[in-house]
Design goal:
The chain folds into three domains: 3-230, Rhopdopsin 7-helix transmembrane proteins; 241-341, 2-Layer Sandwich (Beta-Lactamase), CATH 3.30.450.20; 346-395, no CATH class. α1 packs antiparallel against α2 (35-57), α1 (6-27) packs parallel to α10 and α2 (35-57) runs antiparallel to α4. The radius of gyration is 37 Å and the shape is elongated. By secondary structure, it is α+β, with helices and mostly antiparallel strands. The chain has 17 helices and seven strands. 61% of the residues lie in helices and 14% in strands.
Length: 396
């Protein structure tokens, strides 16, 4: 290895060690959404950086090709694990399963098949040669399948960043800091790699013949370390507001200032027998046409807390809470309506009320009978005059 590449190799190996160390420390922490995917992504970065270092260290082309193949184990899987991490961390992974997740590994698997095959190697790398005669990194010519794999990698990287940015809009304070760190951790190497791929065609004078993406992993590792250990990335997991909404047993829906339904949880959908698509954007008069009592309340007031009767067989009782929503200009932007079915509670309350009234009535009858018995005990039944018992009690 030429001395001029020594520092380059040291930085790459340090990046590999740092990425692997963070992955090991993460593995010791409690399970959290996206943790395992991030661990595998970090190991992929370690493989990528270490493989690139070994390519630079070994002078023989045969050895360089061996480590090039090893390096691609990380290059091809890192974007997939990054994307899986983002959708799991943002908790938008209801569609994700063992089978749907494996689809994202199809192109990397085919790519590795080409790379490890002597006959199909040119489909991925049209040619490879050392940067200089004395060694150093490899200069590669891209084959047709290389472009397919690169396209998937960029799509997954950008999709992952898009998911985090989308969540950034909804979260606040420390959650936004976490998301900003994650976006920065992947944006920097993606930008460096994009420059490496496009510069020879767009800005040839500024192009660099070697891929500096693994060098940028230093910043990635630092940002991920700050997120995991400084901002407690997996200790303070954000919970999406729609998840909370769906777990509230009461009916919750939102109307805007023009009385159009903006959102409704599953309890509302079940109660009215309509899907979310049939509710969103519709007039409440149409959505809740069977419940005129409810419509009258939130169309005539901006804020209230009361009970209403809903017609039906049997009739239902709803406890409704209407809260206004104001924008930054203190103008009414909409209202949140929470309706809780308290019918069974009211039935129980009425049963207790009737039982209490019956008990009071029985006590009154008992007191009345006791008074009558007391009178009979001190009076003669024929003359109604006081008897000897009365005289005895009176004189004593």
């Amino acid at each position: 290895m030429v001395t001029q590449w020594t520092l380059f190799v040291i930085v790459l190996i340090l990046n590999a060690v740092l990425a692997a160390a963070i992955a090991i420390l993460l593995n010791r922490r409690h399970a959290a959404p996206g943790r395992d995917a991030l661990i595998w992504m970090l190991f992929g970065l370690a493989v990528w950086a270490f493989g690139y270092a070994m390519i630079t260290v070994f002078p023989a082309l045969e050895n360089k090709i061996f480590w090039l193949r090893f390096e691609n184990l990380g290059i091809l899987t890192v974007p997939v694990f990054w994307f899986l991490f983002t959708v799991q961390y943002a908790q938008v992974d209801k569609w994700l399963s063992r089978y749907t997740g494996s689809v994202f590994f199809v192109i990397p698997a085919i790519s590795l098949l080409f790379i490890f095959s002597e006959d199909w190697f040119p489909l991925y790398y049209a040619s490879v040669r050392p940067l200089v005669e004395s060694g150093g990194p490899l200069v590669i010519e891209r084959g047709p399948w290389y472009l397919v794999a690169a396209l998937q990698a960029y799509i997954l990287n950008l999709a992952g960043m898009g998911v985090l940015i989308w969540r950034f809009v909804y979260y606040r304070n420390i959650y936004r800091q976490q998301l900003a760190v994650l976006v920065g951790a992947v944006l920097i190497p993606v930008a460096v790699n994009l420059f490496y791929q496009l510069a020879p065609r767009i800005m040839p004078p500024l192009s660099v013949p070697i891929d500096l993406t693994p060098i940028s992993f230093t910043i990635t590792a630092m940002l991920l370390s700050a997120g995991v250990f400084g901002l407690r990335l997996f200790d303070l997991i954000p919970i999406a507001r729609h998840t909370i909404l769906e777990h509230i047993p009461a009916m919750v829906f939102v109307v805007d200032a023009h009385d159009r339904v903006l959102d409704a949880n599953s309890a509302v959908q079940n109660a009215v027998g309509k899907s979310l698509e049939e509710i969103i954007g519709k007039d409440p008069l149409e959505v809740f046409q069977k419940w005129p009592q409810l419509i009258n309340r939130f169309l005539t007031t901006d804020e209230t807390h009361e009970e209403i009767q809903i017609s039906g067989d049997p009739p239902r009782t709803l406890e409704i809470n209407i809260s206004p929503l104001y924008n930054q200009l203190k103008q009414l932007a909409g209202r949140v309506i929470v309706a809780h079915d308290v019918t069974e509670h009211k039935w129980l309350e009425n049963d207790l009320k009737y039982a209490n009234e019956a008990l009071i009535k029985q006590l009154e009858e008992i007191n009345k009978l006791r008074d009558e018995l007391q009178v009979q005990a001190i009076h003669d039944p024929l003359t109604n005059a006081f008897n000897r018992r009365y005289l005895t009690e009176f004189l004593l």
